């Protein structure tokens, strides 16, 4: 396959992942605040940060306020990181025995991890091992927030990913995919998406295999489809691709087309169809034959033409890329005769 279209698709995914990281920040800001917004002066914020140095002076309310102001202004991230002992204080609360403080401290780390690579490197070194251990915590909120934090840290770049991998984060996140808790699984998928994207072919084959097998059992949605596509760009993808994942993607294709048709507009299209199509386009020749036969047997020609007739930019581009790969592989397949007759 020509590398040019693959590289182009990868670059467009890079932009989407940047937006994904910012969007997660907005979700935390809008949906997950535990107290009312408070407009604090820089002096009040500095006082709260200073309190982190003293265990006896830090309250749950302090931590919740800090969590929120970290979202409100990126400069507050620098205030925490430049205060000697503040990050150590967050780690102390994260690893303490007060569950409310642990969850609030994890939320602070999650929002600190929306900073730049330098900030995330410091957080990964100080808090990474503890965040990784807490992925096993039976309290869903705490485990989820730690997974989100690791994902945000990983999203800052490969250097931070290497630090977290050495601490065992990816191995633990892979195990989280096996837990029968949808919220836990979603948080793990979010984190692994950033690891897989930033690490590219350095994402170890053993992790690649575990994640692909897990994806074949998880619900198909925009995030799992995006992760599937990111992994399909891995050099070892074709050797580790489970048949169950292919079957699942094909079986849910009509549903994803319907969702796309009902909900997507050109300027905001980031749905499972987009990434399912891109993933299928990255398969090998043997799988292309399976795809073509499935399309023919399930009368998907009309469905695909409907998608192409809709002005949906990136989806059209990706679908044409898939059809081009399929045609180059097997131009005489009956599916193309059927398609040309429509």
Automatic annotation (TrEMBL):
It comes from the Eukaryota. The keyword NADP does not apply. Signal peptide: none annotated. Gene3D superfamilies: Leucine-rich Repeat Variant. This is Importin subunit alpha-3 isoform X1. Keywords: Coiled coil. Residues 14-41 form a coiled coil.
């Amino acid at each position: 396959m020509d590398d040019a279209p693959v590289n182009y698709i990868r670059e467009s995914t890079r932009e989407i992942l940047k937006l994904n990281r910012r969007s997660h920040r907005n979700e935390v800001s809008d949906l997950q605040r535990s107290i009312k917004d408070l407009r604090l002066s820089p002096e009040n914020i500095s006082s709260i940060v200073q309190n982190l140095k003293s265990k006896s002076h830090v309250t749950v309310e302090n931590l919740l306020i800090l969590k929120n102001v970290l979202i409100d202004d990126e400069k507050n991230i620098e205030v925490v990181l430049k205060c000697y002992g503040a990050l150590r204080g967050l780690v102390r609360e994260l690893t303490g025995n007060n569950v409310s403080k642990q969850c609030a401290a994890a939320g602070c780390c999650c929002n600190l991890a929306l900073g730049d690579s330098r900030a995330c490197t410091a957080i990964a070194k100080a808090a990474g091992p503890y965040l990784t251990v807490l992925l096993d915590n039976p309290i869903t909120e705490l485990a989820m927030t730690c997974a989100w934090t690791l994902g945000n840290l990983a999203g800052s770049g490969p250097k931070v990913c290497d630090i977290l991998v050495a601490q065992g984060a990816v191995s633990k996140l892979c195990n989280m995919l096996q837990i029968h808790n949808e919220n836990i699984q979603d948080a793990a998928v979010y984190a692994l998406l950033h690891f897989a994207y930033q690490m590219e072919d350095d994402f170890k084959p053993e992790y690649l295999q575990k994640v692909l097998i897990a994806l074949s059992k998880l619900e198909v949605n925009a995030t799992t489809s995006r992760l599937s596509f990111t992994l399909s760009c891995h050099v070892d993808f074709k050797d580790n691709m489970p048949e169950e994942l292919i079957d699942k993607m094909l079986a849910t294709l009509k549903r994803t087309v319907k969702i796309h048709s009902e909900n997507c507009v050109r300027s905001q299209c980031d749905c499972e169809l987009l990434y399912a199509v891109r993933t299928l386009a990255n398969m090998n020749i043997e799988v292309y034959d399976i795809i073509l036969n499935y399309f023919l047997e399930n009368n998907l020609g009309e469905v695909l033409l409907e998608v192409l007739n809709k002005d949906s930019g990136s989806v059209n581009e990706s679908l044409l890329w898939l059809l081009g790969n399929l045609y180059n592989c097997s131009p005489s397949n009956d599916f193309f005769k059927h398609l040309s007759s429509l």
